[in-house]
Amino acid sequence: MKAYKIYRRDAMITGPLMLVMALLVMLTLRNEANWIYQGMMKNSALLFVSLIFFIISGIALYLPYFSKQDVKGMPRLAVIAIIIQYLIGSYVYGIAHLPYIIYPNVTILSGFTDPTSFRAVFATYIVGFAILVPGFYYFWSIFMKDQRRKFKRRQMSN
Amino acid sequence: MSDALLAITLVWGFIFLYAIMASMDFGAGFWAMTYIKKEETNATKIANSYLSPTWEVTNTFVVGLVIAIYSLFPGAVFPIGVALIVPASLILVLLCIRSAFLVFSHSVDKYEKALTYISGVTGLIIPGLLISVLPITHLGFVEGMRGNEELNLSKLFTSPNEYAFVGFGIMSTLFYHLCSCPITQNKPMK
After folding, report:
1. Which terminus of chain B is more solvent-facing, meaning fewer CB atoms within 10 Å of its CB: N or C?
2. CB contact under 8 A, A21 and B172
3. What's the CA gap between B64 and B56, in Å, rounded?
4. Binary contact (B174, A14; C-beta < 8 A)
5. Does B103 map to a domain?
6. Which residues 77-116 on chain A approach chain B with CB closer than 8 angstroms?
7. Which of A14, A72, A100 is the closest to B171 by Cβ?
């Protein structure tokens, strides 16, 4: 449990720092790239939802600190909330960034490939990912997952 | 949804997945370096167990990203290539050093300590460089006519927005790793 406490303590420091940095990003965006700031503010409701998910993960990290209860369930909630927060945040940024790939010269339409070539490439990607994703999962279950539980179960059945 | 929109969504999805998985890898490097003095806990051990060559699998997403842009947006390849030549080359060189140490230091013991420091430092620099791709694309510092664009580096490095993004990238890498590390360990920590 000691290591978990160190991890949580440092997460409680870096979390607020990350929020401050995100606010700095928005402030400097307003001065330097107003077009994307305006685009992001069109979805300001979504940005607010993203902030709420960040606060949920903050609560999940901070709450056990006060209650001194069993802390097992909370980090999972924190990480799911953070991933949703990232997803919403990057969606808002990505939508605001369109139609430019590189502002102001390159748009998605000016650089886009031929429609038939697009269909071929896209189909190839779908097939490729149908192979790659189970491969990744298998790789993960071999090397990354904690194998101790499985061993324990095997010992019990023997 | 138009074809171009579908294509850029695919590219952005690649970037998102890579960001999530790469922050596990890069955050592990930095925290293993920070916790190395705390011998009485197994915090370094846990962070080190994430410092495994297996995480370098995530870097296949970098390859996938380049291929996706090249095949879906051939007209945008030249300006993107010119704009990213400095940061992307630095990222590749640092990734090479980091991956080489991750893979080989397990077989040569005397590099064990060097591995901790190299993966710690590169774990800070690489996310900072990776996220500065975003300010390059939206600040409008890629100047010049079509066909001979150029990135204005002095404008980029004097822009507060660039540094805000770098700080944000580093902080979110560190925070995300700390959040996600305990749960993927299946809670066996004592």
Report:
1. N
2. yes
3. 14
4. yes
5. yes
6. 78-79, 82-83, 86-87, 90, 93-94, 97-98, 100-106, 108-113, 115
7. A14
Domain membership of residue B143 as a residue range: 3-184
Q: Quick check: is B86 in a domain?
A: yes
pLDDT along chain B (190 residues), means of 10: 83 87 82 70 62 71 85 84 85 87 74 78 88 84 73 80 87 81 48
Q: Cβ–Cβ of B178/A86 closer than 8 Å?
A: no
Question: What pTM, to 2 d.p., does this model score?
Answer: 0.81
Q: H or E stretch including B150?
A: strand B150-151
Q: Is the alpha carbon torsion for A139, B57, B128, B136 positive or negative?
A: negative
pLDDT of residue B93: 92
Q: Does some domain include residue B84? A: yes
Task: Flag whether pLDDT at A67 surpasses 60.
Answer: no
B189 within some domain: no
Buried (b) or exposed (e) across A46-67, using 16+ Cβ within 10 A? ebebbeebbebbbebbeebeee
Number of structural domains found in chain B: 1
- Best of A108, A109, A116, A121 to disrupt the B interface (most B CBs within 10 Å) is A108
Q: Model confidence over B65-85: pLDDT tens digits?
A: 888 888 888 888 888 888 888
Q: What is the ipTM of this complex?
A: 0.80
pLDDT at A145: 61
Q: What is the C-alpha separation between B159 and A25, in angstroms, rounded?
A: 11
